[in-house]
Amino acid sequence: MLSKLKILLVKEFTLELRRKSVISGIALYMLSLIFIVYLTFSLRRDTINEATWSSLFWLTVLFSVVNSVAKSFIGEKRGLAIYYYSIASSHLIIISKILYNSVLCLVLSIAGFILFQVFIDNPVQDYMYFLLLLLLTSVGFSGALTLISGIASRASNSNILMAVLSFPVVISILLMAIRVTKNVLDGIDRAASHDELLNLVAINGIVGTLAWLLFPYIWRS
Amino acid sequence: MKQWMKFLAVAILLYVHTAGLLADVPRLNILNETVRALYFHVPMWFGMIFLFGMSLYFAIKYLANPSVDNDRKSVECAHVGMAFGFLGILTGMLWANYTWGSPWHGDPKQNGSAIALLVYMAYFVLRGSVDNQEQRARLSAVYNVFAFAAMIPLIFIIPRLQDSLHPGSGGNPGFNIYDLDNRMRYIFYPAVIGWILIGVWIASLRVRRKALEEKILDLE
For residue B74, is pLDDT > 90? Predict the structure, then answer.
């Protein structure tokens, strides 16, 4: 089973690197967002305070991530979906998609963070902790959004539906992330954020288990 | 729903409303007489959780055994649960206006419950956008499970972690300290039971009406 999973993962990465459509589109989107933020704030000749930095960062990451994960199921053609259905079990497919999307989200968040550092101030003091936070949120976003993308792909108006369905589910992850970011920006001791990180791990667990259990029902048609 | 349960529900609620407004309540500092809102605000939430729980139960039953009946029950319970949720937020806003100073205080539990309602509104949007009846039922059952699991941390866990004006969160003492001696308990617990019974009654009426509507459509 593990070898099948590896094959599926390799397939996802190969397809992505071959076409580069998703990565380049989203990267451009993110770059434009950050540039607009930079222009708006530099005009005031004022340094951004930490709350603003945090909210802008998470807004940028959130929108880029939602757009990129949405393409995982919605763009797929019917024939291709039937082919995948016949060759691999639904569990493997959802796990491979979630893992691939987690890596994608992590790359996007790190890229966003680096771009933020380049264009705008960088108040983050504890890099490793922030990286851990980005890892946890990537997995969480990926799990929730991949399942929602699977649901939305079966309905009409998929893009609007994706946004509508995903927003509330993602909020709890985002709330935890914002609180930890606030602590990291303020330079507070690591132990203060342990509760929120544990919460994130728990939410990731819930979302992952639900995706595992529920995906076969969506895949059936 | 059994006849005696309906009579019981009506009787309980009549008792709750008269006793709730007329009986003595313990005096507390900021709350004064508004603590009576406890009899109306909190049972709404109990009712909502119970109805969403029933909706979840029927959604899981649908996934195990696809039948139009299970799907119908799941949706109607969600409808009534949402109505209770709206009433809960409205009563909460009314109570907050007199005790906290403004209807919407940005309190985490308020925000959490508003977002939980958004989750279920998205559920209804999803149902509206799928045409195929069988697929609609399956997708909404899946999303129902997901929405319920998303709602639990939002309403129960996250507000407790943050500073909040709600009792029981952010270091405030829970309701036991509010002198919830037998005076208030005698009215509060029946209120919860009464509202849950009413909610189930309304849901069952809606289910029957929907079944009849579909039968008429089939015959036409």
Answer: yes
Which residue of B126, B138, B146 is in closest CB contact with A210?
B146
pTM of this structure: 0.80
pLDDT tens by residue, A100-117: 888 888 988 998 888 888
Residue B2 lies in a domain: no
Listed by start position, the domains of chain A span: 2-219
Put simply, the chain B residues between 1 and 60 with a CB less than 8 A from any chain A CB are none
Q: Say how many domains are in chain B.
A: 1
Other Cβ atoms less than 10 A from the Cβ of B189: the count is: 13
- % of chain A surpassing 70 pLDDT: 94
Say how far apart CA A141 and CA A144 lie, in whole Å: 5
- The four Cα atoms B134, B136, B141, B147 give a dihedral, to 10 degrees, of 170
In a domain, B71, yes or no: yes
Q: Considering the domain boundaries, does residue B44 fall inside one? A: no
Interchain proximity A154–B143, CB inside 8 Å: no
Please provide the average confidence, as pLDDT, over all residues in chain A. Answer: 80
Look up the ipTM and state it.
Answer: 0.75
A192 and chain B in contact, CB less than 8 A: no
Q: Check CB contact of A15 with chain B, cutoff 8 Å.
A: no
Q: Judge whether B114 is closer than 8 Å to chain A, CB to CB.
A: no
Give me the domain span that covers residue B54. Answer: 49-219
What are the Cα distances from residue B218, in Å, to B132, B211, B213, B215?
Answer: 16, 11, 9, 5
Contact B51, B85 (CB under 8 A): no
The answer, for B157 touching chain A at a CB cutoff of 8 Å, is yes
Q: Is residue B211 part of a domain?
A: yes
* DSSP string of A72-110, one letter each residue: HHHT--HHHHHHHHHHS-HHHHHHHHHHHHHHHHHHHHH
